[in-house]
């Protein structure tokens, strides 16, 4: 910014090569350029013939020799705060899980009341699958959509923010082949955990499903259409994308996994060591889902991957139950790797 006191002085510049002389007098609001006997006046000055320029400024403070700058307040950096990003991630995860438990309880209670009033026993598909599916949809989608709307995103902006689009040919291959690779990796990690003598905790929903094989086809459909899309919407689409605004790719992926894996504790049975073992195993597929989401930037890909992954685990459990007790342990191990 120039010094306002400069308006009280004059500057003279002489170009020896061109014989050109220019004089600027700020205080008198006049400026002239002499070149070969010709005089040209500048805006806000007195013309060479003595007439006033109609564009001249009446306010000496409008001198062109004075530069005016406007100071602006520094941008709010709170959204980029690592602590705030971590708090948002775990806060959304906790809200999602609490909502899941609340909605499941309400829907299950409503079904029970209706059954008592009508005197008809509901089928397992109604008493178990319906609360399971409705709670996923209402809780996870509700929390995620509510947060994005709170931030002021419109529907089209949400689609861009989450990366919801039709998969390309390569992304389609990743979505189909990826679950097999995730399953192999997760089972390998599970086997390593078992070597240390720690038995993973069981997933209550998976155990209920495997004890009633007739609902497995319905649960497979639920995994593909409800669990995969809803969980990935909240944990990868919203939580990981929010973390990505503050952190680079690797920390954001780990943060989303650190929220996703422990969230399964509400559906696990067993001691603390068993639950920690299962959570550590679930951490692996969560990291892989996060890596794929980072690479493709397409929520549809990881939603399909997650749904197929859970469906494969249920299929393994069904085969284990259907074709021999010697495969029962394999089925139980697969059940421990299921989603919520």
Supply the key terms:
alpha+beta; single chain; 6 strands; two-stranded antiparallel ribbon; four-stranded antiparallel beta sheet; 61% helix; 2 domains; disordered N terminus; globular; 10 helices; 340 residues
Compact overview of the structure:
The chain is about 60% helix and about 10% strand.
What topology does this entry show?
Elements: E1 10-15, E2 20-25, E3 30-35, E4 38-41, H1 82-118, H2 124-150, H3 155-162, H4 169-195, E5 202-203, H5 204-211, H6 216-244, H7 249-263, E6 268-269, H8 272-296, H9 299-323, H10 328-335
Antiparallel strand pairs: 1-2, 2-3, 3-4, 5-6
Helix pairs in contact: 1-2, 1-6, 1-7, 2-6, 4-8, 4-9, 6-7, 6-9, 7-8, 8-9, 9-10
């Amino acid at each position: 910014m120039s010094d306002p006191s400069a308006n009280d002085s004059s500057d003279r510049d002489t170009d020896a090569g061109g014989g050109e002389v220019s004089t600027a007098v700020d205080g008198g609001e006049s400026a002239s350029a002499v070149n070969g006997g010709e005089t040209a006046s500048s805006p806000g000055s007195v013309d060479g013939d003595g007439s006033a320029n109609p564009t001249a400024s009446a306010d000496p403070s409008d001198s062109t020799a004075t530069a005016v700058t406007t100071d602006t307040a520094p941008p709010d950096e709170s959204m980029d705060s690592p602590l705030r990003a971590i708090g948002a991630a775990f806060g959304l995860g906790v809200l999602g899980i609490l909502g899941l438990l609340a909605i499941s309880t309400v829907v299950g209670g409503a079904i029970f009341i209706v059954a008592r009033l009508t005197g008809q026993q509901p089928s397992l598909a109604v008493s178990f699958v319906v609360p399971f599916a409705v709670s996923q949809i209402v809780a996870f989608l509700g929390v995620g959509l509510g947060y994005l709307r709170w931030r002021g995103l419109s529907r089209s902006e949400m689609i861009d923010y989450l990366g919801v689009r039709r998969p390309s040919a390569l992304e389609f291959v990743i979505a189909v082949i990826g679950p097999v690779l995730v399953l192999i990796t997760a089972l390998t990690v599970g086997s390593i955990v078992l070597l240390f003598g720690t038995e993973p905790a069981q997933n209550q929903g998976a155990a209920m499903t495997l004890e009633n094989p007739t609902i497995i086809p319905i649960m497979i459909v639920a995994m593909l259409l409800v669990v995969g899309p809803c969980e990935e919407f909240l944990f990868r689409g919203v939580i990981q994308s929010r973390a990505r605004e503050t952190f680079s790719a690797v920390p954001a992926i780990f943060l989303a996994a650190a929220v996703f894996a422990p969230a399964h504790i509400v559906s696990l049975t067993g001691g603390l060591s068993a639950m920690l073992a299962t959570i550590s195993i679930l951490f692996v597929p969560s990291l892989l889902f996060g890596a794929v989401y980072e690479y493709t930037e397409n929520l549809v890909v990881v939603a399909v991957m997650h749904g197929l992954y859970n469906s494969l685990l249920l299929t393994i459990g069904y085969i284990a139950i259907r074709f021999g007790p010697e495969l029962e342990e394999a089925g139980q191990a697969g059940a421990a790797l299921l989603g919520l």
